Amino acid sequence: MTKDKSILINNIYHMLSYAFQTLKQETYEDVAVESFDEMYNLLAAILAKGIGLQLKQGLYREYISHQEELTVMRGKINMPGTIKNRLLHKQMLTCDFDELSENNMLNQILKTTVMLLLRNGKVKAKYKDDLKKKMLYFSNVDTVEPTGIKWSSIRFQRNNQTYRMLVSICQLIIEGMLITTDAGNYRLASFVDEQRMSRLYEKFILEYYSRHYPELSVSASQIPWALDDGVGTMLPVMQTDIHLQRGNTVLIIDAKYYNHTTQVHFDKHTLHSNNLYQIFTYVKNRSYQFGEEDNTVSGMLLYAKTEEEIQPDNVYQMHGSQISVKTLDLNLPFVEIAAQMDRIVESHFTGVIKAD
User: Fold this and answer.
1) Rounded CA gap, 308 and 1, in Å?
2) From 2.60.40, 2.40.170, 3.40.1350, 1.10.10, which CATH number describes the 203-348 domain?
3) CB under 8 Å to 278, separation ≥6 — which residues?
4) What is the pTM of this model?
5) Which tens digit of pLDDT belongs to each residue from 179-199?
6) Measuring CA to CA, how many Å separate 187 from each of 120, 147, 173, 180?
7) Sign of the torsion angle spanned by Cα atoms 325, 331, 332, 337
8) Alpha-carbon distance 222 to 217, whole Å?
């Protein structure tokens, strides 16, 4: 998919910076201007910078439950344990208490991810050295089994909001780069698998339009089914990737990041049928919501462009609605990527002004 690897990697930095607005802060400027030829180095640089900023604020700490045998009471006495000590003629109290500690899941995820990067041969020495220095402050933090992290159970609140971007980067590294060998050891695979990249691609497009087109309502909204009797038991949720709207004009974009933009059967290239069925269903059900009002609801499949010779570039008029299939070339300088995305808005919404 990459003609110029460094261009794609730097564009992924831009995509990350839209997905995680924290990266747009001045403190990350030196990461943004550096040219990267390996994804490992980009992520290591972001993580090192982010952990450094977090250390200045202080590592997040939370109360951890402990049970220890002590000579003096602390917290609450654990009666079964204390009685057992008495029976064994030990003059000790078994106590249960909470202690404020940095050895919590958020910091454990950071340390575990850094350890993976330090073991990777493609990470440059300067980034490893920087990460090693940061880890001196994590001496009281344990590592965890990477495949055992329950990402969906992680909750952020006011005291740990600054970890949101860091943990997301860690998840991208661990889920996108980690594979298990037969021996049970871990090694880093080539960055990045289709599923993880697809999530980032969707988030980038959504946040780009949200930031630069305030005149539009930009969301990843759900579309209700157009039901005659209101009974929708067991129907799947219609969840859009990107929903752009101004008045009665709507553009629904399904962002697709595949290794192959078309499917091939007996040397014949066709569009991914499920993708086309899905976007058509979204458009017709969304149009139904307007009732008798005049409306223009269009749909677009926006694929990340690959190196394949045949790339989709089609516009169809289906049952009164426009369905288009386009590609976004991520191998171009970012200003040209932005221009491609701007043209999509210009072709569907007249007179919309782009904001910086």
Assistant:
1) 8
2) 3.40.1350
3) 254
4) 0.74
5) 444 444 444 444 455 666 788
6) 8, 12, 12, 7
7) positive
8) 14
